[in-house]
Design goal:
73% of the residues lie in helices and 0% in strands. The protein is elongated. By secondary structure, it is mainly α.
Length: 211
């Protein structure tokens, strides 16, 4: 038996995933040349001042993570609000502490509701239609970004209320060692917040300069 080899000419146009990725990341000029307010919203929602790499971000993945964090805060704040301190020297039932814990509970509940409703909305929205609407910008783009930002803001406010409630309870300790530990915790908290703000400012300036 004689085997014959026939030359085959192959033309490579890239894998289907690579072609789809290139098409999805091609953003119209109306989104690249957005206003300063829109760029700020993009940065708060997606971590950069435009939609260059994220205009097809998995929105539901972001919202599901927000729901998880908000649910954890909701459960934790609910325990502190509904129960009394198991030990007499850790008193978190003072008016200021209880108010902050209650605010943390309410904000976490709002975060769960807003992120859950946003997730339901985008799960039942046609992706092709959403892509076309995002190309035009305007109200739909603001709605898209705010559906990410608002739950995250509520989660951040809830977390800060809980942290300050614990700080007030810690400074009310009669033990000096516990007060020193609380003061160190406050310093570490301030350093972390400052580092996060500096990182955000640096990334925003870098993203704005690259335009």
């Amino acid at each position: 038996m004689t085997l014959q080899n026939f030359p085959v000419v192959l033309t490579f146009y890239g894998t289907p995933d690579e072609r789809a990725l290139t098409e999805e990341q091609t953003i119209p000029a109306s989104l690249r040349d957005a206003s300063s307010f829109t760029r700020v919203l993009c940065f708060l929602a997606l971590g950069r001042a435009d939609l260059e790499d994220h205009w097809e971000t998995k929105l539901c993945s972001i919202l599901s993570n927000t729901v998880s964090v908000a649910s954890l805060l909701l459960a934790t704040s609910g325990v502190f609000v509904s129960t009394s301190s198991p030990v007499p020297y850790f008193n978190y039932s003072t008016p200021a502490t209880y108010f902050l814990l209650f605010m943390s509970l309410m904000l976490a509940m709002i975060a769960v509701l807003t992120s859950g409703l946003s997730m339901i909305r985008w799960l039942h929205t046609d992706q092709q239609w959403s892509r076309e609407q995002l190309r035009t910008g305007g109200y739909f783009l603001f709605s898209y970004l705010l559906s990410i930002i608002m739950p995250i803001l509520f989660v951040g406010k809830s977390l800060n209320c809980f942290v300050f409630a614990m700080l007030i309870a810690g400074f009310n300790f009669q033990n000096t060692v516990c007060r020193v530990i609380t003061a160190l915790w406050l310093v570490m908290y301030a350093i972390c917040i400052g580092a996060i703000l500096m990182e955000f400012a640096w990334r925003y300036a870098k993203s704005h300069k690259s335009r």
